[in-house]
Each structure stands twice: as structure tokens, then as C-alpha cells.
Amino acid sequence: MITTRALGGGAILRRFAGALFWLALAGMFLAVAGPSAAEGKYGGSWGLPDDYSTHGHKIDKLFYVILWVTGIVFVLTEVALVWFLFKYRRRDGRKAKYTHGSTAVEAVWTVVPAVIILSMAFSSRALWKELKQDMPPDALNLKVVGEQFAWNVLYPGPDGMLDTADDMLSLNIMHIPVHKPVVVTLTSKDVIHSFFLPEFRVKQDAVPGMTSQVWVEATQTGTFDIACAELCGLGHYRMKGYLMVDTPEDYESFLAELAEEQEE
Questions:
Q1: Distances, alpha carbon 161 to alpha carbons 164, 202, 203, 243, in Å
Q2: pTM for the full predicted model
Q3: Do residues 191 and 172 touch, judged by C-beta distance below 8 A?
Q4: pLDDT digits (tens, 9 = 90+) for 180-223
């Protein structure tokens, strides 16, 4: 027979739920106030790629919060599972005892996860608004069109506007100036692609028939990967581009060279 014992009005589970709540809060604190957040440096850690954007460290902090909370919940849940398997294992000569459960315990383990999830949702709302809704008004505007299996990068021509006859095209190479906000308008010619800049914490689907926007401000010059993070066909593995972060002078030189190529 399987042996169980009444839990004293659910006292054990209430203590477990309380510990879960406080440890989850401690995990959120460690993620926010840990070394990465406190130093405020643009550097990768915990296996993440280095960060070269002005807002990447904010995304990393949110990632750490979720990692700590879910990690703590996972460990405590597995420990509780093993403990219950051992404590209420079958024992000769002891009968199983039916218990209806505890309404208080059920309320606690419903309310505690809800509070934790809502706290993370509200804390991330401001960051979502900053990254997805409040585009910098003084930003440089570019357009990226995905297709199987390449990235078409469009720059405004002499009129300073996109989607006009003098747009300039660069294939699989996107140039942006350092320390300058850049708004990228995304769309696709054929299937869903995903525009992914790992070192800048930018990832956004490019969907046929609609446009979406992301923005980035680079903190360092260099050459970085543009990846497609969506399985977009048999040639998906070949869909790779490069982001070239230039000094303002090099960026102007690139635009001049690109304009000459368009005229030929």
C-alpha cells in the first residue's frame, strides 16, 4: 500500500511555497544587482556574447532575472519531488491515508507564481516600450528586406527618404555609424525570416506583407554577424550577412562609394 500522512493542514507545502517565493525574489535581486548590472560594462558573461549596444545590458539583466527565477523554481520543485517520493514511499504494514488537500496551500501556490510572473511582466514593460515603441527621433533610417537566402539592405539616397527611386542597395552587408541610433525597418519578399544581431541583442521577425522596426546604437566599431534565426528553407544555413560598424567618416565614405556604384 502507498503510505501518505496528513500534512498538518498543509503546513509543509505552505513553508515550501513561502521559501519558493522568497528565493525567487532573492534570485531577481541577484540578477538585477549582480556584478554585471552593478559594473554597467558592455561585456558578455554567463555564456552570452559580448554586448556592443547601448541597451543590450538591460536585456541581459532581464534575462538573468528570468534565469534565476526559473532556475530556483526548477531546483526546488525537483528537490520537493524527490523528497515526496522518498517520504511517502510504500512501506509494509502501513495503509495509505486519503487527504482532500488544503485550500490555503492551493491558494498560496496559485498566488505566488502569479505575483512573480506579473512582477517580471511589469518590470519588463518599460524596456519593451523603449525598444519596440519609442524609436529615437534623430535616428538614421535603413530598410532590410529578407529573401531566400540573403539580406537586402536599403539606404536612403540624396533625398534622404526610403522607398524612393534613389534608394541605394547593399547585399548582405549593412553599414552603420558608431554612437548613432539606427532604426531598421524589416520586411520579407517570400517567407518569414528573423533578423538577428547577437552582439547587439536585436532579434525581430521579417514577415511578408508587413513591416516591423527595431533600433540599435553601437558602442564600438567592428564587423559582426547578421544571422537568420528562423528556419526559412533548405538554404537557411547560407543566409548570413555582416554588420559593419564604422566611424562617422568611414560611414560617409561608404555611402559615397555606394552612390557611385549605383550610378554605374
A1: 7, 24, 24, 21
A2: 0.75
A3: no
A4: 999 999 999 999 999 999 999 999 999 999 999 999 999 999 99
Q: Which of these, 235, 145, 241, lies nearest to 190 by C-alpha position?
A: 145
Q: Give dist(CA 263, CA 42) in Å, integer.
A: 40
Tell me how far apart the alpha carbons of residues 172 and 2 are, in angstroms, rounded to a whole number.
Answer: 64
Q: Which three cell numbers stand for residue 213?
A: 522596426
Please tell us whether the domain made up of 140-263 is placed in CATH 2.60.40.420.
yes
- In contact, 117 and 28? CB cutoff 8 Å: no
pLDDT reading at 8 higher than 80: no
Every domain of the chain and the residues it spans: 11-132, 140-263
Could you tell me the strand order of the sheet in which 193-197 lies?
A: 173-177, 240-246, 222-228, 193-197, 202-206
Cell of 70: 526559473
Q: How far apart are CA 165 and CA 156, in angstroms?
A: 9
Residues 121 and 91: their CA atoms lie apart, in Å, by: 45
